[in-house]
């Protein structure tokens, strides 16, 4: 389960992360920081403040990812060759900055600035479904595809692949409802519209 970590010292941010982008929300500048080795992203307040007596950057969101050599029946390196691919383990956004599009911005930043192809996990709850549908409908920086990892084919499963726009592919082709696991092998794939890191 993804959790928001303790605040980071400026030295930790400088040593362990690269700053990919920034965004201002309600007059506060936040930075998206990225550790490609872990892989892990966080959103921090750009200006450090005194927290528990120390100078720290407050963390307001985290994105936990995992690189896998295989997804169900798909060998990641064979399928995506030299591209950086990571499966999402979870995203957590603090309530103070929730519902302003921050999760979407983090996904876009990791895909466009770090050049990572993002894969959903195989278990989608209502919040995850809503986020992926929002990204598919609204993002101008990402294109979303549906991949069946059991058959190693993109929707419509005929050798081609079409972009998912949040409505263009029936939900029954993407998600199955518990206890049915018929669509467990289906993941969503988010790629930069430019195809590479900026």
TrEMBL record:
Protein name stated in the entry: Uncharacterized protein
């Amino acid at each position: 389960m993804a959790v928001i970590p303790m605040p980071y010292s400026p030295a930790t941010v400088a040593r362990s992360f690269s700053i990919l982008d920034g965004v201002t929300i309600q007059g506060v500048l936040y930075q998206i920081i990225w550790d490609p080795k872990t892989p892990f992203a966080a959103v921090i307040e750009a200006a450090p403040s005194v927290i528990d007596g120390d100078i720290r950057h407050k963390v307001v969101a985290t994105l936990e990812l995992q690189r896998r050599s295989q997804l169900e029946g798909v060998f990641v390196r064979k399928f995506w060759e030299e591209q950086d691919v990571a499966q999402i383990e979870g995203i957590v956004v603090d309530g103070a900055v929730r519902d302003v599009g921050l999760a979407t911005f983090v996904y876009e930043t990791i895909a466009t600035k770090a050049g990572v192809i993002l894969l959903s996990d195989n278990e989608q709850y209502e919040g995850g479904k809503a986020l992926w549908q929002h990204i598919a409908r609204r993002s101008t920086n990402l294109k979303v595809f549906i991949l069946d990892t059991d058959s190693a084919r993109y929707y419509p499963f005929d050798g081609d692949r079409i972009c998912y726009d949040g409505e263009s592919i029936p939900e029954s082709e993407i998600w199955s409802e518990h206890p049915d696991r018929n669509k467990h092998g289906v993941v969503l794939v988010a790629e930069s519209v430019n195809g590479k890191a900026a």
